Amino acid sequence: MRGLSVALVDPGTLVGRDVKAVLRERGFPAAHLHLLQTGDPSSGFLTEDDGEAAYVAALEPDSLSTCQIAFLCGPAKATSRFLSQRGPDGCLVIDLSGQRTMGTFVDALREALPSPLPAGDHFLLRDPAAIVLADSVAALATLRPVQAVTVAIDRPASDLGKDALDELFQQAIAVASFRSVPKEHLGTQSAFNLYFPADSDAYEARVAGDVRALLGRDLTIGILSARASVFHGTTLRLEVRFEGEAPGTEALRSVLLAAGRGFAEAEVDGPAGILDAAGRDETLLIRSESAGAACRLFLASDDLRRPGALLAVRIAEAAIAERGLLPDA
After folding, report:
1. CA gyration radius for the chain?
2. Does the domain formed by 129-302 have CATH 3.30.360.10?
3. CA distance 136 to 235
4. Which of 52, 94, 172, 254 is least surrounded by CB atoms within 10 angstroms?
5. In this structure, are residues 151 and 158 in contact, taking their beta carbons and an 8 Å threshold?
């Protein structure tokens, strides 16, 4: 079969499953998909893939030597450990693990990838919330210069991995039945709760830095984040302050919903929320209003899709064309 040799590292993670789904949805030219895992370095394991048995091999320092493109979808610490031991392999690595010490960022703004892509064989993605926030500001700035942004971000359990999702589910059951709550992965009772984890300051600084890098300007940004009792998806409630009077509400909606900007309205009866963004590539514009020199937006985004799996696969597609990895691609 004509195509590329592709590695998917940690396919059982949430983002790994989405990458695999996007590869299939977009008809990515993979002749062979190698499934690898960063967990137990001594052995692999059997899993199910499209109703058939599939073997997930242990990720070794030379595992990517037979691959042309690899997607790293595992935990940051395990990924960093592999990268520190990685041998020369000639494989283009697209890293969704969240580690930020090795690799080069690919900064895509408003759906546009940089052309050409950066040099090197290891690409990183910005924080998903930062990508959504920067896209919003960039779109609004086409109407009037943006002076400052204040945003409240609700962080879901999904960015801690599948084990945290499972624990949140068990917590909800335990609270409803007046039993003790498991806290191994979340560290506290997250079900029916809103709290500020220990990494809040670092997270907020990271998002602000990524937004400035994506926009290419030193924008004034105030961020207040919290860990919410949400399984999946990120909500952003933001106030954008303009130089002079803010554009009208219809102008705001029009510029965000324009084709190619990655935003859409929820297609549901009644009030929309974060659940309606699950599985969507678009960021949902749930509420918008303008008053004086500011506008307020309520956005909901599936943090694993457009700013994660879809962006990673689009970068791989661009690299195929630019680097001649597949003739006539």
Report:
1. 20
2. yes
3. 13
4. 52
5. no
Q: From CA 199, how far away is CA 155, in angstroms rounded?
A: 12
DSSP per-residue codes, 163-204: HHHHHHHHHHHHHHTT-PPP-TTTSS--TT-EE--TTHHHHH
Domain boundaries, the chain: 4-126+307-323, 129-302
The full DSSP string for 3-48 is SEEEEEESTTSHHHHHHHHHHHHTT--EEEEEEEESS-TT--EEEE
How far is residue 151's CA from residue 230's CA, in Å, rounded to a whole number? 18
- Residue whose token pair is 């002079």: 244
- The SS3 of residue 69 is strand
CA distances 95 to 15, 20, 83, 122, Å, are 11, 14, 10, 7
**Whole-model pTM?**
0.91
Cα angle for residues 154, 159, 163 (degrees, 5° grid): 125
Beta bridge partners of 149: 221, 240
Amino acid at 9: V
CA–CA separation, 9 and 7 (whole Å)? 6
Question: Which residues are bridge partners to 105 per DSSP?
Answer: 124
Residue for token pair 């694993």 = 304
Q: What are phi and psi of 94, to 5 degrees?
A: -115, 115
Measured CA distances, 190 to 119, 124, 160, 168, 204 (Å): 42, 29, 12, 7, 19
Peptide bond into 116 cis (omega under 30): yes
How far apart are the C-alpha atoms of 223 and 204, rounded to whole Å? 6
Residue 181's Cβ-side half-sphere holds a number of Cα atoms within 13 Å equal to 19
Fold of 4-126+307-323: Rossmann fold (3.40.50)
Phi, then psi, of 135 in degrees rounded to 5: -60, -40
The reported pLDDT for the residue numbered 326 is: 80
Question: What is d(CA 37, CA 52) in angstroms, rounded to the nearest whole number?
Answer: 18
